[in-house]
Amino acid sequence: MSLKIDLVTKRFGSFTAVNQLSLDIPDKQIFGFLGANGAGKTTTFRMILGLIDATEGAITWEGEPINYDKTDKIGYLPEERGLYPKQTVKEQIIYLGRLRGMAKKEILEQLNQWLERFRIPDYLDKKVEELSKGNQQKIQFISAVIHNPRLLILDEPFSGLDPVNVELLKNAVLKLKEAGTTIVFSSHQMDTVEELCEYLCIMQHGKPIVHGSLKEIKRSFGKKNLFIHAD
Ligand code: ATP
């Protein structure tokens, strides 16, 4: 288990957003966080990434807290999407790749492969503001994975996409897992989590109400009860 969350609590003033969360997230697997709005998924991700500090408890990756010297090994797709509207796709990704220490040639090779995979091969020189929301989301996904991270955190990666694009992104996630990436993602939908994950945590009001391997959880609770808990 390389990513460990140990009795983590996050309070904002008197409000507890995450309450005594403990999880071992297995290496090179897909781990899903399932929960309704406000369950504490994004707050957990932001603590994993070191963007905000836990009020109590500790999070470590490969035995150490995640700090900025690990940025080039981690990819993050935030829930709130944000690209530079006036830049072209090429400029955007080159800029982000360079921040992670990549050479321009390597960035462009990777980018072209991703655009091909996402069925938008001729989008290199399009300005971000000209793209549909779905295509912007695909570019944002590419910006999270362009440097081949070993740990990838995806906050509701499939929300707002049409079924074809959801499939494209799901396939991309599965391919990254095959290549050895540890992937953590959040969703409101049990079906998506069930399709992609070996392991999951269902959160409600900041608390993990159940976590472990999907097979074991389904055996213990049955699918119907999982839906009831998740909502
Ligand atoms: P969603 O599916 O809506 O994104 P979530 O499970 O990701 O939900 P969080 O965004 O982690 O939930 O929010 C958990 C709770 O913490 C919410 O009630 C939210 O309002 C609160 N919260 C998050 N960030 C802050 C903050 N900076 N200050 C105060 N409250 C916050």
From TrEMBL:
Belongs to the ABC transporter superfamily. The keyword Membrane does not apply. One of its GO terms (molecular function) is ATP hydrolysis activity. The keyword Acetylation does not apply. This is ABC-2 type transport system ATP-binding protein. Residues 3-230 form the ABC transporter domain. The chain holds residues 1 to 231 of 299 of the full protein. It comes from the Bacteria. Keywords: ATP-binding, Nucleotide-binding, Transport. Transmembrane segments: none annotated. The lineage of its organism: Bacteria, Bacillati, Bacillota, Bacilli, Bacillales.
